[in-house]
Amino acid sequence: MEKIFTGTTILWGENLEEKTDHALYVKDGKIIALLHQSQIPSDKHVVQLEGGFLLPGLIDLHVHIMWDGSANPVETQNKESYEQKIIRSISNAQKHLKNGVTTVRDLGSVDDIALHVAEAINRKIIDGPRIIACGKTLTMTGGHDPFWGRFCDGPYEGLKGVREQIYKNAQVIKVSATGGVYGRERGEVAENAELTYEELKVICDEAHRFGLKVASHAIGREGILNSIKAGVDSIEHGHYLDDELIELMIKNNVSWVPTLFVYQQIAQFNGIPQYAQEKAKKIIARHEKAFRSYFNSGVLIGAGSDAGSCLTPHPAVVEELQTMNKYIANVRDILKTATSNAGKILGLNVGQITEGYQADLIHLSSNPLEDLNALKDIRKVYIGGEIVYR
Q: What is the model's pTM?
């Protein structure tokens, strides 16, 4: 199917350059070319967008589609049947799509539910964003995220854990290299290393052998260092990043998904389990300092909201971008974290309106480069050039 999208300002390429008096040529779900108005073929189907701005579909690199974004998602999860969990996951996935999020990376789900939802979307049984899912998280026995953890103690268990998730059709591997804020009330410290370097190294080597990237939940310094040395592809959270770690990340091509918004939610609002709130309050100043210090360091930074987590309902990527924007004034660079940067982190041809990329598009009423609130005023959403929401 061939289409020409015209009548709008196109935010073109990696740097979201504003192109007026142009049209977008799409064929078989992919972007073929940017055309001048005078070049539009007379025999092609023209989609007249009537003003506004055409942006690549947003990407959220860190979500949990089975969680409800309440003050205590595990409490909700424990009350629901397996079937109800799947229904909620589908509903949450469709909320992302209706709000212009066309690709998400799901980094943890009970019973590998996100893998099943991703497969249903791929088979066009249901509508939803493109989902890159890990299923279960690989963690030490009793480690962070035990509710969807695949416990791995020792390198050979790590090897087996990777192979199990690959067998289930995981498209990314998630590890817990440190403790966390919202996980276990006792026996878990956010700053402490959990999986060892040796365990992480085997996991990374095996995942990479099968072409999968590894995302590492890593808050404390030792766990971040172990992750980088072991070969992970992204650091999730990264509160205790410092100059040495950033230098190693740049050297080893490790990206960073900060997830700022969720930790501020946990630290600031009542109703969150007290143990989690106390942990969050202890580390959010470090988080903010790291983000301010290293946003322009050369590390590739992607947007991830941790949507589904405490008081972070689906979708939340715009809130994540707005939180970033409180600390970094450059709106274009902030927006790139949820578009071109995020596509690079995934290693997929998404996140840009440019030749050869997927025609995942959102049509907005106003310019998001002037105000990120524009991302909340969506006219239409397209995946592969086909309209999925108006």
A: 0.98
